[in-house]
Amino acid sequence: MRGGAEQPRRAYAVQDMPAPDWIGVPVPALIEPELFDAVQVQLAENRARSRRGGRGERYLLQGLLVCRHCGYAYYGKAISLQAAKGRPRDYAYYRCCGSDAYRFGGQRLCSNSQVRTDRLDGAVWQQVELLLQDPGRLAMEYQRRLHQAQSGDAGRTDIAAVEAQMAKLRRGIGRLIDSYAEGLIDKPDFEPRITGLRQRFAGLEQRRRALLDEAALETTLSLIIGRLEDFAGRLCDTLSAIDWHQRRELIRLLVKRVEVDTDDINIVFRVAPAPADPVHTGPGGSFLQDCGRRDTAAS
Fold it and tell me: In which element (H, E) is residue 260 found?
């Protein structure tokens, strides 16, 4: 071989033998067959749902981009040497999976255009920086949603009133059934009355669930508003010094998805209340959600 020694360094070589010449040796199983099958199923699901490709983390928004036309994901695609025309490019393209004809039997499902990675990465990161520099924007949006819901006292009063009406209807249904069982009411009179009572009860039950959902939303939004400014203040101290991997983790911490349209993009943020401060970094630079607070308060 070119560049190799004239004489091999070892006096033997390794070659594959055909399967009929293999010598089988009985080996006891290390794990149960049921466990092995369960692991194979889990591994197959992990491969199907994993956001990371086989080549690891290559793009800042990898796994977050969604096409608003067809709903398929965008993926990063490097520029080929032929397309680059001999000029080095320091960017790639995000491309919609639905626009690849080979994925769907030669027919494209989407006509949404591809986007340069440097421009889209910069636009999304700029919005994340603006959010952290001015957390009042997100707080105002949550406040608007909070004001749309009923106040806490009124919500509790409404829930209590609805539950009282439900209890009254439940007693009425029971009395009506007892009257029918004792022969005091005929079947033609019983059926429409019991149907009407059950319909009213179902409507009250739906109203009760809606009020409970509003109360849960109010509690969640209050926790988010209380933690948002503290989160942004602590992180802005080190925002300018984070590297590419930390920036990628931070975007995933704050951004749920990025919807790509023909003329614009829509960034869907997610800021959920957490039991601990999520802005501290560990020795490797990754953001840790389960660490305690710092000794010094944020300015």
Answer: strand 255-260
